[in-house]
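Structure ticket #2291
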Amino acid sequence: MTARLDPVAAAPELMKTWLGASIPLASSLEPTLTELVKIRASQINGCANCINMHTVYARGNGETEQRIYLLPAWREAPCYTDRERAALGWTEALTRLSEEHTHASAYEALKAQFTEEEQVKLTLTIVVINGWNRIAVGFGGFVDPAAVKSAAKAAAA
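Resolution: structure written out below.
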């Protein structure tokens, strides 16, 4: 796939601000949980770029192949904790907001596993990955995860 537009080149200051908002969220919850959420939202949105990137990061954080492969069927797979299930349910509810109205039951599961502050952190993480999915899919972006990690470090400095 050829990129239609490089958003960083087209709007560098805005993209720097967007990246600046994304970076602190990446470390606000457990790394494995965060990556599972990002992968699941990206699967729903059909974002090959973000699936590729976040599976690499998940493996780097010690995530297993089995748990990555089973994400589309997380409800039936016994390898996820109650906390992860609550996060994945909330991810799906917010990512598919216009398709279903399951967010009330997903929120009840979320409340049982996450503090109020963690609920906000998780929700913002979901908002950001959905935004990145739309940027990547919309503009046809596909980048090397190592290049993204390097750019994020440079932007944070």
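Closing remark: The radius of gyration is 15 Å.
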